[in-house]
Amino acid sequence: MPKSPRPSFRCSECGWETGKWVGRCGECQAWGSVAEAASEPAGRTTASPVTRPAVPIGQVSVEDSTFRSSGVPELDRVLGGGLVPGAAILLAGEPGVGKSTLLLEVAAQTARHRHRTLYVTGEESASQVRLRADRTGGVHDELYLAAETDLGAVLTHIEQVRPTLLVVDSIQTIGASGIDGVPGGVTQVKEVAAALVRVAKTRNITTVIVGHVTKDGSIAGPRVLEHVVDVVLHFEGDRDSRFRMVRAMKNRFGPVDEVGCFDLGADGITAVTDPTGLFVENHHAMVPGTCVAVTMEGRRPMLAEVQALVTHSAAERPRRTTSGLDSSRVAMVMAVLQQHCQVRLHTLDVFASTVGGARVVEPASDLAVAIALTSASRGVPAPKGVVAMGEIGLSGELRRVRDLPLRLSEAARLGFQLAVVPTEAGRPPARSPESWTVDGMRVLDVPDVRSALRLLHLLQAEHERPHAVDAR
């Protein structure tokens, strides 16, 4: 006799399965969410009629899948050219970062180009969205607004409006009737996402779905949500700053190493095409403890100023405070300076930060951090108009950084006169202030951090007096 299948129990919140009933989920720790899962009878799938016959790939038309501008240049940059008809886009971000404001601007710009747009909100009422649209100038006759939390009602709105662009804010608030679980649960999110993607593909509607994130920054809900969509975007920014960035984590139509920069203000969100000036302070006088690093955000070079303050400590254990920098890398740079450059910081309070709320975690900023710390501890400012880039190893050597020509061109474009970079393979290290140039900017290549500090006149031995570098 064939054995009957054993019953299984599944959590409606996270999808965790177990062989027996329990009152509390062993994965998400939710109470009362575990119920017996309906067993599906084993069967054999038979052939069914096809919706469209298969054709050679060369005969497939691509005219219906060409890029269309979203009206926001920075978002087009991240998407690889714009919105693709039939594409499903997932935009995730922390609460209050500006996801709804950005998508309302995209919807308004699409409507201005005579493309009908449907904005479905499940978190706000229609009047609340209208107030924000009045403030940002997003009111247009081709922009339709609906406040719904039922999937069937959303599909009905799509049938009636027939939009070119659909915005759903957010998927965690939409529920499907007849499906177990509460809106935002694993089963509900799967069903809603599958229905929206199916409508997007069959009707050639560009669909943008807003997703929530967990407290660790990952997208809430099942992982299958990221697999079924075509593009996954992360919208991030500091609450204390107006600067926002959109990163592409998955993109079937373009690159995934691009970022878009935005400025979130009271009158809406605007694109920032040249964000470098937000993170570099213009000092009228030479100030100790500052240095400018060139980082890469995707394929975009951005300059960020690193500042350091070193003071005498009155506590038994000196303080180590960082803001906008990786604290572990700052600690490593301090250890290298003490071991290989005799810069004594173990009894001093050290504060290191970036300007404008920039987040600099790239190893290529190690040299700028080392210059800022040494300049602050010695009270000697670095030469004016200098930028530094290079990863520091534990033995004090400088390692190569990627996209060095692109970084140097951006620094030269912004008027910097001197750059300190690691020695490239096959090129002898700089022995004097004279070296090669890039667009009128002098470039010094050095093998290690000690040589870089000496060339900048921040580190001297008693028996040698190296020539001071003047960037002017």
From TrEMBL:
ATP binds at residues 93-100. The middle region has homology to RecA with ATPase motifs including the RadA KNRFG motif, while the C-terminus is homologous to Lon protease. InterPro entries: AAA+_ATPase (IPR003593), DNA_repair_RadA (IPR004504), P-loop_NTPase (IPR027417), RecA_ATP-bd (IPR020588), Ribosomal_Su5_D2-typ_SF (IPR020568), Ribsml_uS5_D2-typ_fold_subgr (IPR014721), Rubredoxin_2 (IPR041166). Gene3D superfamilies: 3.30.230.10, P-loop containing nucleotide triphosphate hydrolases. Plays a role in repairing double-strand DNA breaks, probably involving stabilizing or processing branched DNA or blocked replication forks. The gene is radA. This is DNA repair protein RadA. It comes from the Bacteria. Residues 349-472 are annotated as: Lon-protease-like. The keyword Kinase does not apply. Residues 64-213 form the RecA family profile domain. Keywords: ATP-binding, DNA damage, DNA repair, DNA-binding, Hydrolase, Metal-binding, Nucleotide-binding, Stress response, Zinc, Zinc-finger.
